[in-house]
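Message: Just now I want nothing more than another pair of eyes on a protein record. I am handing you a single protein, as its sequence and its fold in token form. As I understand it, each token names a local backbone shape. Take your time, and here it is.
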Amino acid sequence: MNYSEALNYLDTFSMFGIKLGLEQTEALFDAAGINLDTMRFIHVAGTNGKGSTSAMIERGLRECGYKTGFYSSPHLISIRERFRVNGQAISENDFAKIMSEMADAASLLAKQGMKVTYFELTTALALKYFMYEKVDFVVLETGMGGRLDSTNVVTPEVSVITNIALDHQKYLGDTIAEIASEKAGIIKPGIPVFAGIMPDEAMNVIENRAKESASTLIKCRETNAFSCWNNKGLCSTTTFDGYNLTIPLPGLAQRHNGLLAAEVLKYLARRHKFDIQQAFNGISKTLWPARMQKISQNLWVDGGHNPDGVTALVQTLSELYNNEKIDFIFGAFADKDVMPELQLIAPMAAKIVFVPIANQFRPSWAPHELQAKIAEYNVDLEIMTAVNLAEALKKLDDDHRPTVIAGSLYLAAEALQYCLGDDSALNI
């Protein structure tokens, strides 16, 4: 099986397949010969922020000389981004080799009447890869949920829940408390759990689950100790228990994520006797593409795709630009209620150009549909449509205002590919 054949094989599985229970994941791991006992895990769940938090934890561990595995989803441009060792995406050859092994394992399960899902297959591939690479730590990010997520077969050193907000209600529940209950499913008996800033109704669920599991709960501290510097807040710095901590990703939400990552690294440093300041130096070098990423002087890309994520985007833009008006290029999938997000960005927008998302698997809102939706909101701004991202950028080419591409992680990926090339997200 070569790389192209491996991709084609993976595409035959349902990307959005959902299986209740972890028995099938465990069966796949057994069939694939995956030994979880050879690795130490940091297990990370949350509605938003889990990718950034995971990236900062991974970078801190790497800075201290540990060999790290990092499994995340979704990918931006290449599937290879989901499987990283020391920040480097898996090679095409290794991906094809291990996918061939996973295909053999999936075939064995099929004979027993089990059809594995896309996410089960990629999770198994990740852990087999990390096992082969003999990594010291695996930063393991859940997919959509927690309790029934394929990653939840591991027993981690720590569990981390970044935040809880409304998203994926079809699968996770209609209320903050219900979603929190699903995410809290990663809490294991006696394993410390670290919780980010979240609504009280979510924190209550986390607290109760931690108590039931006899797990120590460590809450993220507030961000009021930060001072901002370097080009109007592109970085934030503070003193954390006497250590210097710099968060290189802009905005309040990233300061929350950085403080949560720092708490996790402080715990791991004491447990494994590595230098806390060195780990924090690693945090300052974190790269995490498409999360308020600066592409050029006036062009930003952000993957926020739900009201909580877009609220974080608006907070960051307000911090960076005060009351300055912003141009937006916006696209979203058709199964998303976009009005809450549009209502968030409209007050600071000078222009919005609506675009479709170039994704063949999932329909997006047509630009004229989004134009009609925001017209109902009766806002005083210029609204345009474009047939694609390239045309949208050309329409704003003569403007000297900041421009933000937003609304979908897939649109953000499209922007990175268009502006920076196919390899722009492979290595962090």
Remarks:
- The longest strand covers residues 40-45.
